[in-house]
Amino acid sequence: MSAILEVEGLAVRFGPTQAVRHAHFTVHQGETHCIVGESGCGKSVTSLAIMNLLARNGHRHAQKIIFAGEDIQAYSDRQMEEIRGNRMAMIFQEPMTSLNPSYTIGSQLTEVLRRHRNVSQAEAEARAMALMARVGITAPAMRLRQYPHQLSGGLRQRVMIAMALMCEPELLIADEPTTALDVTVQAQILRLLAELKQELGLGILLITHDLGIVARVADHVSVMYAGEVIESGRTADLFARPAHPYTRGLIDCVPVPGKIKAGEPLGSIPGTVPVMKEGFQGCAFRFRCASATDACTQDVPRHEIGAQHHVLCHHPVTDKGSRA
Amino acid sequence: MSTTPILSVSHLSCQFKSQGGLFQPTRLLRAVDDISFTLEEGRVLGIVGESGCGKTTLARMILGLQKPSSGEVFVQGAPLSSLDRRARARLIQPVFQDPFSSLNPKQTIKDIISLPLRAQGTFEPHEIERRTAALLERVGLSLEQGLRVPSELSGGQRQRVAIARALILEPRIVICDEPTSALDVSVQAQILNLLDELRRDLKLTYVFISHNLAVVEHVASEVMVMYLGRMVERNQTADLFKTPRHPYTQALLASVLTPEPGLGLPDVGLGDIMPDPAHLPTGCRFHPRCLKALPQCATQEPPLRKPTDHAVLECHLT
Amino acid sequence: MIRQTLRSLLLGAALLGTAVTGAQAQKAADTLRIAMRDAVTNIDPYYNNLRTGVVMSHQAWDMLVYRDPDTFALKPLLATSWTLVDDKTIDFQLRSGVTFHDGSAFSADDVVYTINLVSSADSKVAVPTNTNWIEKAEKTGDLSVRVTLKKPNPAALEYFALVVPIYPKAYREKVGADGYAKAPIGAGPYRISKWEAGKEVTFERYDGYWAASPKGKPAIKTLYVRFVPDATTEMTELLAQRVDWIWNVNPDQFDNLSKMPTLQMARKESMRIGYLSLDAAGRYGAGNPLTNQKVRQAIAHAIDRKTIAEKLVTGGSRVPMAPCYPGQFGCDSTAAVTYDYDPAKAKALLAEAGFPNGFETELVSYVLPQWTASVQGYLQAVGITARVSQLQIQAAVARSWEGKNPLYMASWGSYSINDVSAIMPNFFSFGGDDYARDPEMKRLLEEAGASIDPEFRKKSYSAAIKRATEQAYWLPLHTYVTTYGFSKSLSFTPYPDELPRFYLSKWN
Amino acid sequence: MITFILRRTCLALVVVLTVMTLAFVLTRLSGDLAISIAGPGSTQADVEVIRKAYGLDRPVLVQFYDWTRLALTGDFGSSFFFKDKVATLIAQRMPVTLSLGFVGLALALSISLPLGILAALYENTWIDRTATMLAMIGQAMPSFWLGLLLMIVFGLQLGWLPISGTGSWEHYVMPGIVLAFTAIPALTRLMRSGMIDALSSDYIRTARAKGLSRSSIIFKHALRNAAIPVVSIAAVQLGFMLGGSIVIETVFALHGVGYLAWESISKNDFPVVQAVVLVLASLYIGLTLVSDILNALLDPRLRGA
Amino acid sequence: MPRLTQASFVIGLGIVGVVLIAALFGPWLSGHDAFAQDLNARLIPPVWMEGGSTKHLLGTDQLGRDYLTRLLYGARISLFIGVLTVITSGVIGTSLGVLGGFYGGRIDDAVLFLITCRLSIPVVLVALAVVGLIGSSLTLVVATLGLLLWDRFAVVARATTMQIRSLDYVNAAWCSGSSPLAIMRDEILPNIASHLMVVCTLEIALAILLEASLSFLGLGVPPPLPSWGLMIAEGKDYMFFSAWVIMIPGLALFTLVLGINLVGDGLRRAFGTQVIK
Q1: Nearest residue on chain D to A52, alpha-carbon basis
Q2: I need a labelling partner for C257 at 20 to 30 A (CA). Which of B291, C131, C362, E37 fits?
Q3: Residue E86 belongs to what domain range?
Q4: Interface test with D, best of C44, C233, C283 (most D CBs within 10 A)
């Protein structure tokens, strides 16, 4: 498996607010890499920063963003346009608003193919219908002529996925693709993504806040807190041996049917996520951390605690099976 | 259990006419259709179902925010419609989903919390002051925070304010409509724990609405599953999670993604037909998505059955 | 910034003569472009009550009688001669060889048709008083007509000369009243070639006009009259040389406009007088202060009419002493009790009348706002607070007739009829505008109006003038001066009767 | 769609009826109409004759009933002063007002749309501020004053344009500019905010993620959605412009409906005033109806309703 | 907030403040009576022009009245009309809008119907007709404009109330046992107030412009009251040779309206209000 996307030292700044700080991760071909974190931790900004789709007041800086072997940081707007939707596609959280209400599904699907490939409208439509059938949309010929408002949320997300796949991209970035959907639909969409990954050898970068999703679909996980990747590892590793206090706390917070008896309190993390300003030093989690010491105000060391498993902490938990 | 249930809902229905201009054709939307249940004091009833299943409308009817098209809500045996708004406020209070929209941005936290007391019109100012301060502390907020406005508080803190407001009149029942779904996981746990503590301390009864089955499993003593306005199954929490009888309940449970690596993704197989409350299917409302549907499911409404003492089921399948 | 803008605007105004391009006077096209403010909405002369309408009618229609604009002497026009058979009967001998604009010949039938039509009670004409004193007209020959009056009217021939144009019977009966209003014809020096209600009228010289007419054959081929409602817009048009002739120019601009190299200005005092009527009869409220003679006299002393005439109206405006135009028959200024400007005396009179601190009242007006404001200012100076209601003419007149105008500033033009009967009876014969309601005044005026003996009439009018001024019922303020602005290339003579005669104008 | 149009039309009719009542009541606010019809120089006997002739001696309700009944068939009675059918008068003058309205709207759109789009594309830059400032200046400019200034500059100093009247298309330029000024601020602002909303929407983010070119994103995806409210407001603005052209028509001596109304008001010619109020109101109602239908046609979300 | 927006807001506030002070104290300080005429001192140009005098800084009008004093007095009238009109229309529009938005259903249908009717009425025309038929007076102008200009208040109040009505803090107030009146007063009004403030500024500006238009046509404020519109109307005959008579009141009107609009725009940006048409 080769790396399709390699990000190192990514920082994104909105005015004085530091949304992402020296983030790093690698997505391999045919692998789902999950970025997980609570709201405001910078996970969505990271995905937009890779696509260079940040709002005008957002500033991106990175040591490297290597896509398919090339550093795309220095790419011009024109070069990025060539890649986007073509070799690197994205789907978003809100399928309701992510489709243009004024154009038919068909026109929005074919548009992207005709932009990047020299094909006729008929060819584009044929491809669109084939893909729609593949993502589980019945009667694609009819759907092609419908407008987004005539479709349910689940169908719209399927359309978004089909649209993202029109040009057979190498990397698919999915930003909370199922958050707005019902649980029963969520499972279907996730299954679809997993199947497509297998079939097409896609690299998927999946952004989510839901540890349940992470556990079920990810090959590799990066946990973000306050703009930083504080822990990263193979999924099974990370869930079995969470090293960062935050990762542990997060896992403890999630109620699991049959695991915690009614009446017992859930594990929780006190306090709230801080907003990062420029010049912040030390561990951002120290204000909420039970094991924080004076050392935590210093630059945080990176510990490799296993194959492809590392953590950013002064006091990583390394004892095996310490989960509560 | 021969005592009167604290909350009892009888044949409650709610239909909306889609509104527009003066001459818009009225389309009937059955949000809640003939729902009955009773709830004993101190229990927590979890209501689950997908968006559009009518669970929020049901909550609004119990709170008196929505007038039922038919049926009645009884609180301690008295019909809700016979209570004036102050009496109702003393019995039932809400905690809403979005802590950003449930607090008036122009009022201080203390004013927000004391609103139910002030609305009663019978409390002295110092009494109001005293009880507000006490409750602030109880939900884990400082007196200084009581002088702030909602925008200066975090989501979790706001939800604590909402809980304080709900409890200041010492009501018997609290309706929690997705109280943690707008919060981050780490904060969600704080709020769930607080709610649970308060329930024990104050002998409260909760109706707890959520789409998150794991949360419901954790807090509820019994669970009701709704689909397109109907109650399709109801049971004690443990029983329901152990032996889900309705295909829809089964699908719901199967869809829950617990943070357990290696289990993979479930195949729920419900198809791409979405429930639409404006166009109800004939027969069993779930049949277009049901993998086990029988021929009669498309034509006949399923019967209401009681497989056990506590279980209620509405399905043709046995 | 402001200064620069102002300067550039002024500079622009000063350079008008040279800056304007492509809008030279239409001398070459032989078209006189006229702008007027008061739009005629129905050009049929009997169905509008505006001065503009009278002006139009004299270009396109002929009357039976012609009044010399300089001497006011009555001369034959469509009638070659007339005989006063008795107090109530006039015989007209009509001219032969006259044709209407459609070429049809003028005859007694047209006169009889016209007079009987407009004098009948259900005619709905715009100004019934102009014709309702006529009983009937009878044809006494192909070219002779006898007109019978309801009551003697000493000024009858003046009316026939000014406000009784003759319809072509055959044509008007053929097209009907509405059709006639849309495409009217008469027997005057110009024919109306195009006309749009309230917007514009085009006159073409009528080549079949009879040669010996005192109106003469027009020198200018085409008159193009456009109605421009706004005085400023109208003046802009003149300055930009997009029109050649306007009138009733704001007198304050007279001197400035006179200096423009492309323009010439003229003004002429007219028979119209501005007045202030006072509610002596108590129509507005029985006990109101104006019912007190001393109050009315105080007001007469309070207003500096001479300064108003000289500084505001300008151009030779005078202050009439009697309640009529000084040149009118029977208007004897020597009979009038006079009031000079004397605010001290006015205050004394007010104190005598029991109003040492003045009082509040209302001043209704439709004349130029600055004139109203000046009268208001003078009244304020002696302690009388007058609330101004500056209304449109129609609304003010309506209020006047309802008896709701305690003080009322208005004007009266006597329809250019050179006789006191055209003015005083309107204000002292218990009509809508009569705020004196004095039976003695009514008696004197009726007596004078019913006679055709000049001496008797003069005596009665003098008595009426004496009584009216003594009582200070009605305060004449100033005579009007009509101002005219027109292109340097035009030769135009204004006359005192407010009737511009374009058929007498020519290019220089 | 048909029920939608029917429903809107019914509502429009009820509104028209209400406005009719209002228009009738309005003109009864003044004093005795018969006196004002008679005009200066007539006697009280004349007034009585006129009162009878015009049916003003009948009970007000009967007059209202008759007026409404006839007005619904397009017969507004006769003008007291023009001695002509009111309907004819309005029909004669409507083309002038409509031409003025269309010229004004065309000018307003051709200025405000590019201005609004530019302002949105360069949000919070000097371009945006300049556009906003221009709109603000337009909003603060009293139309009659602007009219006078234009008249001095273009009519008098430069002599480029005719000053008053309706002879040629050139006559509509100055009044059109003044009228356009009344609509430019609102339209610019709407275009700007619509464009900003559209540009910051999720579907534009999708379009960018698809790698579409900048021009395609702006003109195909954003403008289409931002233009919907502008198009519908433009029709409504035309209604406002027609109703607001009185001042401009008076200043520039345009013999349109607005000027007709102004003349009639000053002469208490109430059948005309009533009819003009009613016609302008109906036009406005009609235009909003058109705008709603346009809106529904342009926006697929409403089309299905 | 962007910096220049703040600057323009401050400029607007400054303009309005200056006009306000001028309107309140100016007529006393100018040393002349706004109504005292002097027919011998007519149309004196402003002090900086040839023939101007320091006695009359902005010259005199066609009746020899001090132009500066009349201009300052005119500011008083403009502001008086603007504010009073907006109070009247604000009360009407806000009440209707809040009632309609809050109760919905039939009541809202009625309010919507009233708004539709009101919008279809041509304002200038009807205001002119009313003033023309009844007779001009300051009170009538205020009353007429007040009764005509409530639509935007109603539309904005209705739309914002509808948004807020469905918010959970209103639901919570219901559940707390608050009365409908208390909810409208304590929960809804304070939260739509910022939107209404923006409408206020827009409507004050509009009312001032409309009054000027009516007065310009002679059917607004009756003379001798010096409304700026009336001053332009009275002065326009003189504009070719004494341009200041229309430039001065015109600029004053323009500046005041611009100032109010700048304030409104600043408020709107600060509050993030979308004014619904």
Answers
A1: D209
A2: E37
A3: 66-268
A4: C233
